[in-house]
Design goal:
alpha/beta; four-stranded mixed β-sheet
Length: 79
């Protein structure tokens, strides 16, 4: 099984912009039993947290994805 992690985004479902919409479309149209998607999401922007969305596992980082915290957010998603 291939594992694909999507980082550098506020998260899904898309509420914020073009990159989030792209990610939502990628995971929605490419769901496969051979690919496991993980999307990292900002815990600050999603107070109601889902564990799975459109077949992708969601992991929440308790930082903002944009602004002053964005560098720390990106570092934590690359673990």
């Amino acid at each position: 099984m291939k594992k694909v992690a999507i980082i550098g985004t506020v998260g899904v479902p898309a509420n914020y912009g073009g990159f989030e919409t792209l990610v939502e479309n990628l995971i929605g149209q490419n769901t496969s039993e051979w690919i496991e998607y993980t999307v990292f999401c900002s815990g600050k922007e999603y107070p109601q947290r889902m564990s799975v969305y459109k077949g992708a596992k969601l992991e929440y980082i308790n930082l903002k994805a944009n602004g002053a915290q964005s560098t720390l957010y990106d570092i934590q998603t690359m673990r």
